[in-house]
Design a protein that fits this description.
By secondary structure, the chain is an all-alpha fold. Helices cover about 70% and strands about 0% of the residues. It has ten helices and no strands. α8 packs across α9. The mean pLDDT is about 90.
Length: about 210
């Protein structure tokens, strides 16, 4: 990776940490510069605005949540689906370290906060909405692909994979949102129990 690419990545990671701490509305390039340990003027060499920087940061969600799973072979559909669900709620530290050089100490809380902040901003910004739509499409398709493979191999009962993927993904998004926006400390635990039950019902194994 070139020095310019490394610097750009450091800026994006600093923006991620700063956004998780300050929220979208209060976040400034000075906050990001402080997190980066550099004069904020450096950021303008790589990004024209806060919005452009945070828009580019959405790629972090693709790398963490989907990564190469959309193309990888599926040996055990049930295990693959459970792993994917778990990764969305509790990012694997190994995978986090592959994507980010300096992730926040509490990556689960940071990811949930950034998710809520950026998806909320997409309410008013067409460019953000296009990106969040693309990310959700990839996550949904990954779940549906695992389901289709499981059905084709007789490992899952015959269901509508698209509709079932919607069901699972809606639950996961609600878990992330509830974890961030309420004092409930059990939101993701409840979602995991529900999705485990769904997968159990889908499985044809004893």
């Amino acid at each position: 990776m070139s020095n310019a690419r490394k610097t750009e990545q450091r800026i994006r990671e600093a923006a991620f940490r700063a956004l998780a701490e300050h929220g979208y509305t209060d976040l400034t390039l000075v906050d990001i510069g402080d997190e980066l340990g550099q004069n904020p003027s450096l950021i303008y060499h790589y990004f024209d605005s806060k919005d452009e920087l945070l828009l580019s940061m959405l790629d972090v969600f693709v790398d963490l949540f989907v990564g190469r799973r959309a193309e990888e072979p599926i040996d055990d559909p049930e295990a693959a689906l459970r792993t994917f669900v778990s990764q969305l709620l509790h990012p694997d530290p190994t995978r986090v370290d592959e994507v980010m050089e300096s992730p926040p100490a509490d990556i689960e809380t940071a990811l949930s906060r950034v998710f809520v902040e950026l998806w909320a901003h997409a309410t008013w910004d067409d460019a953000f909405r296009a990106e969040t739509t693309a990310i959700e499409t990839r996550v949904h398709e990954t779940i549906a692909r695992i389901l289709r493979v499981g059905i084709e191999r007789g490992r899952f009962v015959s269901v509508d994979p698209e509709l079932t993927a919607d069901h699972v993904f809606f639950l996961l998004k609600q878990g992330l949102h509830t974890r961030t926006t309420t004092d409930s400390g059990t939101a993701t635990d409840r979602v995991e129990r529900i999705t485990d039950t769904i997968i159990d019902d889908l499985s044809t194994s004893d």
